[in-house]
Amino acid sequence: MNLFKLKSKQRREQPERLIQNSVIEYLQVLQNQGKLFFWRQSNTGTYDKNRETFLKRKKLGERNGVPDILLCVGGRLVGFEVKAPKGYQSTFQKQFEADLVKAGGCYYIIKSLDDARLALARHGVS
């Protein structure tokens, strides 16, 4: 495994991780107040050291593109996909968004804590 590539990738992901952590801390406060229910979705697959890549999900019911954070707000499923300021959705994430919205859920791209607050305000949560 090329450690330089890994360290470089970790540096790139840092802004997204900081945003995600601040959003999760805020959601935890709201959950403690009984205003919503949420969980952090881990989407990382199994890393293959020989191929230096993550393996595709193949188990029944597993999906690529699941949002980073899933919430239940007022009986509605809401997905928060956290991105760095210049981040963008993958093809799998766009497909998941379309499927979730078609099923009656809501999906938001979150690039700051303010984005999360605005999204929650649309559902009457502050």
Rg (CA only):
16 Å
The geometry reads as: globular
Query: Mean of the pLDDT scores?
Result: 87
* Tally of DSSP helical segments: 3
The count of DSSP E runs of length 2 or more, i.e. the number of strands, is 6
Structural class: alpha+beta
Largest sheet: 4 strands, mixed
Give the CATH topology. Trna Endonuclease, Chain: A, domain 1
Q: Estimate the strand proportion.
A: 15-25%
Distance between the termini: 45 Å
Question: Topology of this protein?
Answer:
Blueprint lengths: L2 H30 L4 E4 L6 E2 L4 E2 L14 E5 L2 E7 L8 H12 L3 E5 L2 H9 L5
Parallel strand pairs: 5-6
Antiparallel strand pairs: 1-4, 2-3, 4-5
Q: Could you characterize the architecture of this molecule?
A:
The protein has 126 residues and is an alpha+beta fold. The protein has a single domain (6-121), classed as 3-Layer(aba) Sandwich (Trna Endonuclease, Chain: A, domain 1), CATH 3.40.1350. Helices cover 40% and strands 20% of the residues. The chain is built from three helices and six strands; from the N terminus they run H-E-E-E-E-E-H-E-H. The strands form two sheets. Strands 1-4-5-6 form a four-stranded mixed sheet, sandwiched between helices. Strand 2 and strand 3 (53-54) form a beta hairpin. The chain is globular. It starts with a helix and ends in a 5-residue tail after the last helix. The relative contact order is 0.16. The mean pLDDT is 87.
